[in-house]
Specification:
With 264 residues, the chain is mostly beta strands. Helices cover 6% and strands 39% of the residues. The protein is built from two helices and 20 strands. A hairpin with a 4-residue loop joins β9 and β10. The chain is rod-shaped.
Length: 264
């Protein structure tokens, strides 16, 4: 009997149900049997409408619905870090152009100079006349990565970034009067009440290259007080002031020029 072609007009419906119903019945699907799962529409926490979502599982002939994997497409052209549940973090060195961006946004470049370092665990730097002690664990290596035109400074030390608020402030050093005292530059020394003769010298080896040497100190004069500065210093006005007991004096020496303020 010859083969006969028959045309059957029909529509095939694959097993379809809500996720709640599938999970409740949890049937064993035949091998190759497809289960379509409907997740109902709703409203997100932000108030946005969420359209219905349709997912699929394919049976293996032995596993319950709940044990089967969802059908999904593998993103072969996407890096693993892009599919991670949390966003990746980047180090400064991995971001191209960050230095230029910070400097352009800030409008200027930070000026940093090293004044010494330790080979063990600490390093010392001076920024705008202020001294800072920073842990680096190795020799100091400082490079500018940008600055603010007001008070916030960004620096990079041994591949670590630091945010330092300096405001170009001069540190105050409280010191006791002595017959002979050596001053470090870029600091204000406060000797309190001075009732003896003091000879002042300067630690010129600590002056930063390219910067004017600046020294400053203040005190309250008492009977017997006198101040002797290096012979290279010249007083503004021509001569050293006469010190009056009970008056407060502030000496500022910049590049050998002495300016004295008297307060009473």
């Amino acid at each position: 009997m010859p083969a006969t072609d028959k045309t059957i007009n029909s529509r095939v419906k694959i097993r379809y149900d809500t996720y709640t119903s599938w999970a409740a019945q949890n049937p064993v699907l035949l091998e190759g049997e497809v289960a379509i799962v409907s997740l109902a529409a709703g409203v997100s926490p932000s108030g946005d409408d969420i359209n219905p979502v349709y997912l699929m599982k394919v049976g293996d002939g032995s596993s319950n619905f709940s044990a089967l994997n969802w059908i999904s497409g593998l993103a072969a052209d996407v890096y693993d870090w892009a599919k991670a549940p949390t966003k990746p973090s980047y180090s400064y060195s991995e971001i191209t152009g960050l230095t230029e961006y910070i400097e352009d946004a800030a409008g200027s470049t930070i000026s940093v100079s090293s004044i010494g370092s330790s080979t063990t665990s600490v390093s010392y730097i001076t920024i705008d006349g202020s001294e800072y002690l920073l842990p680096t664990g190795s020799r100091i290596s400082v490079s500018a990565i940008g600055s603010s035109t007001t008070s916030v400074k960004y620096i990079k030390i041994d591949n670590s970034e630091y945010l330092i608020n300096t405001s170009a402030k001069v540190p105050l050093v409280n010191a006791s009067p002595a017959a002979s005292i050596t001053l470090d530059p870029y600091k204000m020394y406060n000797f309190g009440t001075v009732a003896t003769a003091m000879t002042i010298s300067f630690n010129s080896s600590a002056v930063e290259s390219g910067y004017v040497p600046e020294y400053a100190f203040k005190f309250v004069a008492s009977s017997g007080c006198s101040i002797t500065l290096p012979s290279t210093c010249k007083y503004c006005g021509g001569s050293a002031p006469t010190l009056t007991a009970g008056h407060t004096y502030e000496y500022n020496i910049a590049d050998g020029l002495v300016v004295v303020g008297e307060f009473y």
